[in-house]
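Hi X.,

You mentioned you wanted examples for the new student's onboarding notes, showing what a folding record looks like when two proteins sit in one file. Here is a clean example. The first protein comes first, with its sequence line followed by its structure tokens.
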Amino acid sequence: MKKRYQTFGCILLAILAMFVICTVVSVSFDKSSKKQKSKLIVTSFYPMYVATSNIVDGADVELKNLSEPKTGCLHDFQLTTQDMKLISTSDIFVANGAGMESFLEDIVKEYKNVSIIDSSKGINLLKEEDEENSHIWMGTKTYRQQVKNIAKQLSKDDPDNAKIYMKNAKLYDEKLKKLQKQEKELSSKLTSKNIIIFHEAFAYLAEDLDLDVKYVLDLDEERQVSAGEIADVLSQVKKNKIEYILAEKQYAKSVGDAIERESNVKVIYIDPLNRGKYDKNSYLDGMKKNLDKIEKEITNKQN
């Protein structure tokens, strides 16, 4: 009988040992799985995607963009059910901030588990008619600060990849410095510092080029320009001795043609860089193309 109890006790001990081993293995596997799970980072729109894609290059993360590349600025963007589902499953949401994403406040309230990165933190915003201008990516100086803000916050939210983020941000910033150097060189060639813009985003580029924006006619796909507004532009051209107007060709070509017919102004069509290919170098290439075009047009005009 005693021997039978001993045998039974050994069996119980063996079962208990197996239970403990299985529990330890299960917990270890669960922790390992959580550690290996890559973070999902969602960006609000194209400029934020491009900036973030440079920062996370080589990191074990998944990067997705909320809006399609054909979408420009997000002033009237409405979240779809699919958008909300994507945000709810994300770990980090990268926003331009400064009022660009009208839905950002709702995201903060609705998805407490999602870390929100506002890339506009600490940036001095330009104002137009007492409203802040949120198109900060269009100034190389302010865009560089956005990149630094994103990298810094990503490093806090995802310390496992912090070294990668900070290294990539530094490398990207070195490339952006070259754009700023080109801007300074271009600025010295501009004989007239007064300018008109047909897209408020260009105010940041104008600031980089040390230009004084005298008049803004903000155009988009729904904007119908009246004869009176064209007359106002022509009046400002004469009053402020304007030589150049920066505009987006997609929405301003007809207005630009009318202005050029009635004045000696040169309308220079550039890209607001708010849509395009999902390519890491798209901002660098796009801004350089803008600067090259401005330099070419002013050189032609001066000659």
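Then the second protein repeats the pattern, sequence line and then tokens:
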Amino acid sequence: MTSPSQLEEFSEHGIGAVVVAYMSAGTIESCVTSCLADPLTTAVVVIDNSSDRATESIVSAIAQNDCRVRYRAVPNLGFSRGCNLGAAMCDTPWIAFVNPDVVLDRPLSELARALDTTSFSVGAGILQTQGGRAHGINCRLSFSVRRELLAVAMGPTRVYSPRFALGVDGWTRVGQLAGALLVMRTATFQRIGGFDERFELYYDDVDLAVNLEAFGGSGLLHVPWGTHFAGQSSRSVPHMSYVVGKVSRVRFLAKHYSRWRAALAALSIAVTEWAARTLARRPEGQSARNEALRLQTKEVFRPGVKVLK
């Protein structure tokens, strides 16, 4: 029998997990199973942007033994639309967004309970890489045009990594949290209108952090919460992933800066990045760089470029 204290905890910290998948058969079972390990996770919704039969088979097998799991195959809606769709399918006071290549070691509801004692509007625990690296992997300094230009030359990790000691107890305010793991109250998510669906992939979490700043901002709890096997989905479509991320950056600038400043910044960053990465022979290839530059330029002057297929 469920005790009164358990019922109270459910009503306060029951949580729904949204997993937006794309060709995720290699990691989806571990991800979903780790979410289900928390008894206060009352829904795990998998939105499959690839309509991948292997992913569907794995999730359906889990759902046969656990009624909390739901699966929906969709055309490639993009990350933001997938998150919003999944969130609408959860009827819980808290909502979590978990990448399909994340395996949790601790309960999502525990993170919600910890966040509830702070003034932050969105929170996450530390995600480690497969090799065990943990320092700031899933948080960054706030976006700025200067930092973005520096990142072209120095790399985003060096420019955006926060400077704090890993051993510090409790919470730290950060500029933004990576979308690989996010927890917040459903009411807060609804209040800001969810993710902006103009961001098909990447910069969705950057935009979310800006939108949530007025409601308390982003906090990182200095406790390892799981492992992120990063890039599992993007590696299946590297060309598209590279291009769509650059277009999303143009949209972020257009949304948060004045028209001419956004256009100047977008074009300056795009051209500098194209030249620097071409000279360095970066692995995305010349074809991806050329298409990214072309579509970024088009997005500046004629917004609404469609990249995802």
